[in-house]
Structure prediction request, 462 residues.
Amino acid sequence: MLQAIELNQVWKFYGDYAALRDCTLSIQEGSCCALLGRNGAGKTTLLRILAGLTTFQRGAVNLFGEKPRAENARRQSGFLGHGIGVYEDLSARENLHFFAGITGSANIPTLTDSWLERVGLSRVATMPVRQFSRGMRQRLALARTFIHSPKILLLDEPFTSLDDRAIAMLSELLTEARQRGATIVLSTHQLREALATASHVALVENGRLRYSGERTQEMLDDPALLYRLHTELGAPQ
Amino acid sequence: MNFFAQALAVARKDLAIELRTRESLNAAGSFAIVILLLFSFTFDPFSDDTQEFGGGLLWLAFVFAGALVFNRGFARELPNECLDTLLASPLSAAALIVGKAIANFAMLLLVELVSLFVFGIFYDVNWFPQAAWLALVFALATWGVSILGAVFGAFTVNLRLRELMLPVIIYPLMIPLLIAAIELTNTVLSHQPMSGQLQWIRVLVASDIGFTTLAWVLADTILLN
Prediction:
């Protein structure tokens, strides 16, 4: 099967500190890879490199054979970081219209309306985002991330602080994305949810990739198993 | 979406936000007017010398007011990590900077237009007969100032003292452009022929091309590092 994402001996330094050390990882097209690790392990740095948001000093990274900053690679990927990535002073419709436009989507007004409907924001489509509740903002962020049907989804702790409705919506969107063959990389601390969703797992500790491979039934039965077997510090409490 | 469509989308988005919040326009407009007002107490606004210092006074007010506009340009992208979202999208970094510059340009031109009316009233200068020349000079100089403001707005966006750092960096770089703009504005205000001032037009055009090329070439480096 085609490799959607390939990292080869990647090193990333912040000053003298090596945030990623000699990371080599291949992610098959259509798979869902859960990026696990403690705070500061290097998960966000890895995702930011894949999203083309930060440079690295050594190694090579390819998304469908192209560098992460290549326009074609960015056109095919959707990124959801720690921030929701929408403008407070624009309405939900204006936000989606803008992001659909810059991602090169076709038929933008219809697409925007269908996504507003889908995330349950049609009735407040013209209201500025600053007047939205937290849950509404999160749903708008999901619509913004998925609106151009990206082939690669890069999600940094997407389940963190979502409300029930947004969690259900994200799970549904991820399932749908996998059905249409999208490749998903998501970092998370929520082992059970991540392992239930993922087909593959990568474990990062102190910037090193300790394990990468298929998610097994044993991991589902005992989510802390990976940490016990492959990290120096053992399972998280 | 091609480069210019991307840049225009960014500019439209910024102008829509600005029209809703009026953060930059209110601050920059009132600041420029206050400067013109204060200097009218210092100089005799009805003397013939007005045409000698008018250009300098106007451009001093414009670039000070411009710093307020430029500072907001990229700072607007910080809440909710919108800058990361833009950089991870297919939008090119150069289109982002040029889009910001177009928005800066539109806002600064509006501030200049309002200031020009105030200047005409307080300093008893009738600039209407020369409006076409003034429009040309203002457009050329304002684009140079705007693109430089956008480039260094991106450069300083993550600095804690960006409000201070941005003017400190851009004002020295603007000197040739400002000298040209002041010379040309003085010539227009004193109703002298523009035929002898073509070298200053060339300086403005060269500055515009140089600063725009700088934005184009350095955009990725500035925004990703």
